[in-house]
Design a protein that fits this description.
- The chain is α+β, with helices and mostly antiparallel strands.
- Helix 3 packs antiparallel against helix 14.
- The protein is globular.
- The strands form 5 sheets. Strands 4-3-5-14-8-15 form a 6-stranded mixed sheet, sandwiched between helices. A 3-stranded antiparallel sheet has the order 12-9-13. It has a 3-stranded mixed sheet with strand order 10-11-16, covered by helices on one side.
- A hairpin with a 2-residue loop joins strand 10 and strand 11.
């Protein structure tokens, strides 16, 4: 295990017994019922199993330990340094991991398989179920984690709750919006698009100026999921002990048809976003808009400093004029792995990192997203790059979006694999001229097969 401690005699499996692992897996295999209030999945194991099983090992008073923490969050070192200065007996060592194309999760799964995962890691909301299938995460309910849930936005806390188990502490969400170069839209007399029809008209107008309004990034399954979410899609559902996969549903077909039309008419590029060619286009104005998430402020400001003052943020275009439908791209947690030797200390750090006002302030400065904590900051505190956005109080756009996210959307197991499947299928379709609807049919069938291969009861919806 990559974690080091000053007490080398500790049992590295403390708190992560085989019985505890079976409970985690049964929370998914044995059934999960969607709660009406959000993303809660309720396992149908009995109460004795769901409470977490064996009592975790605790650090001795005065014992000095070190915890390892894998994260890609920008500026994460600063709050960790603050924690270390205030907690000399419990030191946290950060290891930065790449978040490009899911590399961080491939590394984490490999570490779990090898038996040497970190103590804690950054794990996005959609990917928590995949780690539960690997029996990789500790049930924090045995440590009393549930008593802290009121510190956090309700639906975001529930992202990591399965049955009576709590498997991570929420850190931030990613309400979506539209970033655009206001100077170029004004120069070209293009109105802010309030609907997707108007967005298409804006794309036509931008193209007449020799630019492309956007890129359809084929490997960005996370963003595509957000667009489907906004359109009313429901990719996963569960009843009793059976999951239903609905990737090829009517709202997602609508989104796929829309973007396929823009692609075929060459109104958008098809390069990956957040990579070198895209950054160059953002810097030069070849791409003057981006459908992104709240954390995109730091990304744009950091990679296109020469465009300072020219950007604005706006709500997502709507499918129906006057509607107020929104969605989330990303959102992450701080999870404790099942092999953590000192889980109580790991939980204490995760809670402090994501709810202490001093930590939140440092995370905001780093551009980590929209806080999951209910308190400890004001929306205006999130306007870190206000000058970059021409003085706009842009975080209000994302606060309003976050307040109207459809919390009935539910993630299921295998989402990291699903994103890879989508990326491969969209890339193939772009190369071969295949339809985007065929992508949905292919990935639907693959996902059903993948989940059945993991021992889940699965049906194919539509």
């Amino acid at each position: 295990m990559s974690t080091g401690t000053y007490d080398s005699g500790r049992d590295r499996d403390a708190g992560g017994s085989p019985d505890r692992g079976r409970v985690r897996r049964r929370a998914l295999l044995g059934g999960a019922a969607a709660a009406t209030a959000g993303f809660t999945l309720a396992g149908c194991g009995d109460g004795d199993d769901a409470d977490g099983g064996a009592t975790p090992t605790e650090r001795r008073k005065g014992q000095k330990i070190q915890l390892s923490f894998w994260s890609w969050v920008p500026g994460i070192d600063k709050p960790v340094d603050l924690w270390n200065s205030e907690h000399p007996d419990v030191q946290v060592e950060v290891e930065k991991v790449s978040a490009v194309d899911g590399r961080q999760y491939a590394k984490m799964h490999a570490a779990v398989k090898a038996g040497n995962p970190p103590d804690l890691a950054q794990i996005e909301f959609p990917v928590i179920p995949s780690f539960l299938l690997d029996n990789a995460l500790m049930d924090l309910s045995a440590l009393g984690a549930a008593r802290y849930k009121n510190r956090f936005v309700g639906w975001q806390w529930q992202q990591s709750v399965f049955g009576k188990g709590v498997y991570a502490v929420p850190q931030a969400s990613g309400p979506m919006g539209l970033f655009l170069r206001q100077d170029l839209f004004d120069k070209w007399s293009i109105q802010l698009p309030q609907t997707w029809d108007e967005y298409e008209e804006a794309a036509e107008a931008v193209r007449r100026q020799g630019a492309w309004i956007e890129t359809f990034a084929p490997t960005n399954g996370n963003r595509f999921a957000g667009l489907a979410w906004q359109a009313g899609a429901k990719w996963y559902a569960v009843q009793g002990d059976t999951w239903t996969v609905h990737i090829d549903d009517e709202p997602t077909r609508k989104v796929a048809d829309y973007w396929e039309s823009l692609v075929r008419r060459k109104l958008v590029k098809t390069i990956p976003d957040r990579q070198n060619a895209w950054y160059k286009d953002i810097q030069t104005g070849a791409i003057p808009a981006w459908i992104g998430a709240s954390w995109g402020d730091a990304l744009l400001a950091g990679n296109a400093p020469g465009t300072k003052g020219k950007w604005r943020a706006a709500p997502l275009p709507q499918w129906q004029k006057g509607a107020n439908a929104h969605a989330n791209w990303g959102g992450s947690t701080t999870a404790v792995f099942a092999k953590a030797a000192y889980p109580k200390d790991a939980l204490d750090f995760a809670l402090w990192l994501n709810s202490d006002p001093k930590s939140i302030a440092l995370l905001i400065d780093g551009g980590y997203g929209f806080p999951s904590a209910k308190k400890g900051y004001a929306t205006t505190d999130l306007d870190v790059y206000k000058d970059f956005f021409g003085g706009q109080a842009y975080s209000k756009v994302f606060a309003d979006a976050g307040a109207h996210v459809d919390t009935s959307w539910q993630w299921g197991p295998g989402v990291d694999t699903l994103y890879q499947r989508l990326g491969d299928a969209f890339t193939e379709a772009l190369g071969s001229g295949g339809s985007f609807r065929s992508v949905l049919r292919t990935v639907q069938a693959q996902t059903v097969s993948d989940l059945r291969g993991k021992g889940l009861k699965v049906e194919s919806g539509g």
